[in-house]
Amino acid sequence: MARLADYFVVVGYDLDKRGGSEGQGHILQRFPEKDWEDNPFPQGIELFCQPNGWQLVPERERPSFFVSVLTDINSERHYCACFTFWEGLDNPQLQKAEASEVDEDEVPVLVQPAQVFAPKSLVLVSRLDHTEVFRNCLGLIYTVHVDSLSVPLETVIGNLLTCVIPVAGGSQRTITLGAGDRQVIQTPINDSLPVSGSSVAHLFRQLGIVNVLYLFCAALTEHKILFLSSSYQRLTDACRALLAIMFPLKYSFTYVPILPGKLLEVLSTPTPFIIGVNSFFRSETQELLDVIIADLDGGTVTIPECVHISLLPDPLLQQTQTALSMVLDPELEIADHAFPPSSTQPSTLKIQDKEIRAVFLWLFGQLFHGYRWCLHIIRIHPEPVIRFHKAAFLGQRALTEDDFLMKVLDGMAFAGFISERGPPYRPTDLFDDLIANQVERIRQEECSPHKVMNHIKELAEQLFKNENPYPVVAMHKVQRPAESPGHNEPKNLAIFPPLDDVTVQLFVDHAAAKLKTAPPMVKAELNGMVPSGPPLGDIVDRHGHVLANSARRLEVVRNCITYIFDNKMLEAKKLMPAVLRALKGRAARVCLTQELNQHVLQNRAVLDDQQFDYIVRMMNCTLQDCSHMDEHGIAAILLPLVTAFCRKLGAGITQFAYSCVQEHMVWTNMQFWEAMFYSDVQNHIRALYLEADGGELSTSSHGQQESGPAAGGQELLGALELASEQSRLWPTLSKEQQSERVQKEESTVFSQAIHYANRMSYLLLPLDTSKNRLLNRSGIGDVESVSNSYVTNSIAGSMAESYDTESGFEDAESSDVANSVVRFINRFVDKVCNESGVTNEHLKALHTMIPDIVQMHIETLDAVHRESKRLPPIQKPKLLRPILLAGEELVMDGMRVHLISDGREEATGALGGPALLPAEGAIFLTTYRLIFKGTPNDPLVGEQVVTRSFPIASLTKEKRISVSLSMDQFIQEGLQLRSCTFQLLKIAFDEEVASDLAEVFRKHMHKLRYPQHVQGTFAFTVGQSGKTLVEHKTKDKNQSIKTLSKNLVKSAKRTIGRQYVTRKKYSPPTWENRSSLQSELDEDEISVSEELDQGSLTLSSTIRSSDRQTMSNVVERACCRDYQRLGLGTLSNSLTRSKNEPFRISTVNRMYTVCRSYPGLLIVPQSIPDSTIQRISRCYRQNRFPVVCWRNSRTKAVLLRSAGLHAKGVVGFFKSPNAPSAGPSQADSTSLEQEKYMQAIISSMPSYCEPSGRNTLGGFTSTHMSTSDSSDKLRQPKIGALMKQVMGGKEDVPGTFSRGALGQRARVISLSQPRVSGKARNPPGGKWGSIRGSGRLSAYNPEVGNRLSSKESPQPNGGPSEALFLRQQRAYLYIIGDKTQLKGGKQDSFQQWEVVPIEVCDVRQVKNSFKKLIKACVPSSATSEPSMTFHRCLEESEWMCLLHRVLQVSVLVVELLDTGSSVMVSLEDGWDVTTQVVSLVQLLSDPYYRTFDGFRLLVEKEWLSFGHRFSHRGAQTLASQSSGFTPVFLQFLDCVHQIHLQFPMEFEFSQYYLKFLAYHYVSNRFRTFLLDSDYERIELGVLYEEKGERKNPQVCKSVWDYIDRLNKKTPIFFNYMFSPEDEEVLRPYSFISNLKVWDFYTEETLSEGPSYDWELVQRGRQERLAEEVPDKPDTTTPKSQRHIVWPCYDSRSRVVPDAITKLLQDLQSLEAELGLPPEKWKDTWDKIKANQRAEAKLENRPSFNSSLLMSSNMSHQRRSQGVYLPESGVGSSINLAMDRETSTTSTPVAGRPSTSTLYSQFQSTESENRSFEGILFKKGALLKPWKPRWFVLDKTKHQLRYYETRQDKECKGVIELAEVESVIPGTPTMGAPKNIEEKAFFDLKTTKRVYNFCAQDSPNAQLWMDSVQSCLSDA
User: What is the Cα–Cα distance from 240 to 228, expressed in whole angstroms?
Assistant: First the structure.
């Protein structure tokens, strides 16, 4: 029973104390005046009566009522019901004013009303929450007062204070206060369930479902919640509702439903709270940063940014929301029904309220089911002490990661829940019933919302019944005031009278006396055993969270353990890797512990070393995947085992397993130890009572291990049941029995505490106590609660010295370890002993014992440590040293790391073969490379060496990873390093590597990867470590270069100075990374230079004599050699020659002032003066104006390159010259000059200068080129089709990988071999591929394509048919331009050039594509997702599409050039795509570029001289780091590789050569590919390094020199299938289906690392051979010749070389054995081929083959059988067809008919392309006779060579045709051969001397002269 009201208080306005603006209230009267003993009077009531402050008001307000809640110091809640009304009083302000004389001038502030109203409150204080009853009682007292009823107020109040009602039990009481009233009070049946009325329903209506769920989760996870409303009662209701839905958890923080304004600072308290505040104070709540504000009136919940609310775990959140919406809005479900039921109103508010609460009850049922299985009961008497095993609970629900549940379980509310509901013997309520009996039902109904609703309705009924046990309530009768006292009331309403306290006190005393005499009420205690409900285990299985463990895995674990204990070590060793993999799964770990348990006898199991090692490894592996919480209890089961398994080390010294498994977080986790301790204590206490009771309960302990929690399944049930039984019996025991039991339990706990102090010292003291490894992991503090962060500074500090054991700190340190362990154990002991009620004496005893235990253990450990050191250690593999290049130096010595397998499966053994990775070894950082060298972990391949390395300059991405290996070690940090040489190093640092070392390693790596300046790269610093990097200050050997570069800079500066004047006219666009230019010369600023004064335009005037030699160096550069070979002009001043040449070499850019990224010498039309060039250059981006870079020797069409136009120039560019121009005149003149330039180029073409003036390319019938009409007709449409595809014509079907393409190829080949009539010339043989239209190129300008594919057939003479005359012919010049740039240009039909707009790939596209390509080829981790397979990733990278586009455009250009139109490639900035296209075109069109020399020249000319930005695109320095790596050059090499695959016989170099370049162009080993242009190279003095000057012969500065040198030694770069045709134009397929992934991207050789640093590989092989030799002294056993070749480990080309290489190798080794001097491989090869030729001749069969491998019939298909030699003036063709052996026209030597057969298919050495050959007599030096020699005219190499005899391979001499000035008929001189006509003599005049020759007869001499002449004019 309890009093309905404890106190009745009257509070009024305090007139005396009102100071300033705020008034105050004070208590007028209070009854009873004396405090109750059990319930003191709460303080501060007057604040809560008027939360907004006490104020006088001018008008009377209506009476108000609300209930505030006060919480006292014992956390009891007091409900204060406040009934406030207003009473009139005379205005105190006015009286004051009269008292003081007012000055006249003072204006009264406001007219004060005569009467004001003061509030007065009647307050009723109670511990019961009966809001309505309080409202009625206080209302009645007011009514009695207002209506002056006959009842004295004292009586009413006396009755109120003496009314006693039951607290709970579901009774119904009628009460009356003696004023003719009657009320019925119903008490709830069970007072543990909250009473909510309809407040929960109201809360949901005000805020909505989601908002309330947010508040609910926030309250449970201990956030601060603030309610705002303008109604006090609503605030109280909302707070009450929030608490009601939290049931069964109770809120234990600050709870103030109505907070008075004066106490607002409470809101900044740091603890969580639920507080209500009137909206009046809204502004004050704005600056609260961490408070969640719920506005009840506005229906919003505001969550600050810094607050993160953890929500319910996922399926539950969804289900709860669904259930709530079904309760609150039942119509939602049937809203779409065609025939909705007549009415589905939601239930009444009271019912709805209970339904909502039922939803939350059901939610808690799901969250907490099975919690009783995780309780540890650690004391039963005198009071049950219960602890909750959180880790096990979370582990079994697989929710260890769930934020919400973790926070709830750690919270105060849950702690209260456990202490309240944990005891097994107590009254039960609805929640206990739900947990015990309805979990099964909840689980089955989870998926069907309707069943869930039925369940919820049932729960709601029970809740409703609890609050309203009696359905029909007797009638209330309460008076109300006659008419509500409103504003119309008489002023003189009586003041509430002071009451007579004596009368009231009498009532109170009387009632108290009566209570004393009444018999005590006996309330039956309904205690009973609390049922536990179903265990957790099976639930998890249903969710499928248990990791899949096939029986097979468990079998493997069992077998392995059996092998170990049967001492079958080899078997065990084989199974080990599989076991370690299996132990990732939980079931396998449990299985392991069970198996090990069976091998322990009497707590001990002695093993030998190897067994011990294996068992420890398995334990480590098991523990390593356990989290620090040990949620599956694995560490708990292992704990007894690690103290059981041991090995004998020596006399009386035993090492236990625990000394080897200490490196796991779980041992440092206080909560783990507590849980373990409690679990053990529980078992012992249970055993205690089982023995006492004679074991009748022991049956329940069988089969414990079925479920997961640490305590084991039924055992727990036993413990709780036992405890419940004991609690029931407790009152019946005698005092002695009671105290005996208490003592027994206490000593059980005490003994366990000692046991645990020992156990903890075992696992926390490291074996080597001088190194404190365990408690220094500062991470622990974060994982645990704050109190557990036991890492002290002293320990952290001692880490630093522990690396250096010699430092004399050992003793100090070991004591430090001891101290920290003692502290840790002490804290543990304090905590558990206080919780489990150990007596103080015992606790003190423990504290004295612990240091001794630890000290003793340290001593035993020292002995063990000493002995274990003597054991031969399990060898960590010794660190292997890498072989370094000459000049390469180690930056950081080897750090022990593990190389972990990435996504490539070959090395892991997934594709068969051994698992080479993971491997253990060391990582070395050198000035050039990153090298890993080590041995595989897999014992089957342990003796192999694994090497993975890449140049540091190719590092593209580095990221930190954390790795855990299933080894003994525990590895934290690692790095993943990706390189653009398609290599990936995933390394994990070994424990012996300090983390700061790893950091130093990263820093060094970055420094080397991105040096400040190019001179910091390896190519510059190689071999000069001692000196500073910038070395060129020491001594100027190459003085001339210095001067040149100074001049360059000077003139550039001068230009810059002048440039400002003209800035207004034109300002250039900035280029990509202007900010990152290193030099002060800004590219654009130079290029805008106005014309230099005419005087400075000649070479000699600017360059002083000291620099002349530099200029001659420029001339020798690649470009010039090539220009001379192509006959594109010479620098010789003989005017005779230059007049009739259409092109000249211009020196306008020799100072790099016109365009800084172009070479110094450029080919421009003869007619264009240098001044024009300077003006034109400004129209082009980066000033890269069009220059000629190649000329077709047959059609004389030229290939030009330039950058795209600036936007300004474009429109003018396409205007017809005579159209009136609107633009300013300067732009006009520029565009005119541009046109002039184009016209000059067109005029240079012979076809344009024809006398007939026919502008057609249809049939070039000029003297230069008589092509057969038929063939041309057939060929013409081809280009149109090509063009359409490149531009995206409408009728092309993109992506057809059809046979059609191949069919087409066959057809075209037949076209280029028409049956040729005797006289007609046959067009040059071509090899055709087809082009797939990339679907993305929109149809931009289709008529260009249609025009090209001109459908009409040309007339026999090649003229077009009249009807189509207008513009049906080909243009003379095609400009390949960027589609985006060419918008808006109209074309004039009479112009002679035409623009082909194409889409080019952006540099960004290439960069992104490359990133994806790398990820596809070298994935970082294995994945089984179908979307991530290799081919899918490859396709997504679009790399092949990009190759396709570049090849497609190149083939188009080749085709146009071949038909006689010139082409200008004018794309982007002219240094990326343009370079790719131009180089590929030359490679396809000109066989010279497919030789070693030619390819080198091509790269030097087009890529290096023409300024491809290697440093920028390769991100080689710090400045270009941000721009990222863009492999434009690699893309080009890939295209060459694709062509090489399609035409293997056309290239002198092999695929390896391309890979070599691809590797070294990013490696920075050579200087060749550094810097962005010739200008920069000159500035650094890199361009002309004199050969003789090299200080260190090992260090090659140029990649080409290196290749040359290597090529002499080994045929690795040589292509044995090389058998070229003269004038062969290649036309590769570019369909994606024809392209192959380059194996450069995917192959790797783990045995020796990349093979591109040849010396390293060779030295490595020699070392390996040297190691193998001594191993075989006994020659008796035959050695197997077989060798297993493993994928990705061995180099296949070396282990299984091709036949020729093999033969050459055998030859070499035979020579070595015989002691002969070794012959060069090239000589050997040439000899063999000569012999083969001779044999072919003897058999007289047509065999062309230069290769020993090719079948001869292939030739017929691939070759066109004619060669065409254009000449000046006279057409002469040497027909070398197979069927013409008899014809002697082509046989320079009449008497030898065999030669034409012999050379019909160009049997030639690869180094020679013989255009014409035969015997000539040559006049020797002075007084030497004439000798017959075999002469060979080699047009490709542009030289005339002579040999002793025809068979001879050694070239006797070479005449360079570039030096030849003329060929003239000669006269016989002294000693000339006799009987030869005079006309057979001719002379060859070179710049150095004159050669006299004599042929067999005069026609022959004529032939020779013509041939030489034609070569000269071609050049």
Answer: 14
User: How many whole angstroms separate alpha carbon 1351 and alpha carbon 1361?
Assistant: 11
On whether the CB atoms of residues 646 and 656 are closer than 8 A, the answer is yes
Write the pLDDT tens digit of every residue in 1253-1301: 434 333 333 333 333 333 333 344 456 677 777 776 444 433 333 333 3
Give the integer Cα–Cα distance in Å for 361 and 435: 10
List, for residues 1420-1432, the tens digit of each pLDDT value. 888 778 778 889 9
CA distance 668 to 665: 5
Instruction: Indicate the DSSP class of residue 1546.
Output: S
Do the Cβ atoms of 1110 and 1103 come closer than 8 Å? Answer: yes
CB atoms within 10 A of CB 450: 10
Cβ neighbour number for residue 1131 with a 10 Å cutoff = 17
CA-to-CA separations, 915 to 55, 571, 1687, in angstroms, rounded = 86, 18, 11
State how far the Cα of 555 lies from the Cα of 591, in Å rounded to an integer: 9
User: Which residue do the tokens 């001044």 mark?
Assistant: 1171
* The pLDDT of residue 1795 is above 50: no
Task: Pick the closest to residue 707 from 424, 392, 434 (CA basis).
Answer: 392
**Residue environment code for 469-505, b if the CB has 16+ CB neighbours within 10 A, otherwise e:** eeeeeeeeebbebeeebeeeeeeebeebeebeeeebb
For range 207-213, the mean pLDDT: 93
Q: What is the DSSP string of 165-209?
A: E-SSSS-EEEE--SSS-BEEEE--S-TTS---TTHHHHHHHHH-H
Would you call 1648 exposed, middle or buried from its count of C-beta atoms within 10 A (0-12, 13-18, 19+)?
A: buried
* Contact residues for 964 (Cβ-Cβ < 8 A; gap 6+): 624, 625, 970, 971
pLDDT of residue 194: 85
Q: Report the predicted TM-score, pTM, of the whole model to 2 decimal places.
A: 0.52
Residue 1230: CB atoms within 10 Å: 21
Contact (Cβ atoms closer than 8 angstroms) between residue 1496 and residue 1604: no
Q: Do the beta carbons of residue 1287 and residue 1337 sit within 8 Å?
A: yes
Identify whether the C-beta of residue 1468 lies closer than 8 Å to the C-beta of residue 1378. yes
Per-residue pLDDT, 510: 79
Write b or e for each residue in 1074-1098: b if 16 or more Cβ atoms lie within 10 A of its Cβ, otherwise e: eeeeeeebbbbbbbbbeebeeeebe
Angle, alpha carbons 1341-1345-1347 (nearest 5°): 110
First to last CA, the chain: 122
Q: Which residue is it, tokens 């005119």?
A: 1232
State phi, psi for 192 to the nearest 5 degrees: -75, -20
3-state secondary structure 902-916: CCCCHHHCCCCCCCC
Report the distance separating Cα 1857 and Cα 1884, nearest Å. Answer: 10
Strand ranges, E, within 1333-1458: 1373-1378, 1393-1398
Note if the bond before 58 is cis, omega within 30 degrees. Answer: no
Bridge pairing between strands 1326-1327 and 1198-1202? unpaired
| Cα 747–Cα 748–Cα 750 angle in degrees, nearest 5 | 60
The bridge status of strand 1326-1327 relative to strand 1625-1626 is parallel
* Of the ranges 503-512, 821-830, 1318-1327, the best mean pLDDT one: 821-830
Give the DSSP H or E segment for 1459: none
Rounded to whole angstroms, how far apart are CA atoms 1878 and 1868? 7
- Name the region of 602 (left: φ>0; alpha: ψ -120 to 50; beta: rest): left
Strand 7-13 to 1198-1202 pairing: unpaired
Cis upstream peptide for 248 (omega within 30°)? yes
Alpha carbon distance 812, 1692 (integer Å): 59
How many residues in total does the chain contain? Answer: 1915
Q: Rg of the chain over CA atoms, in angstroms?
A: 50
Number of neighbours of residue 883 by Cβ within 10 angstroms:
19
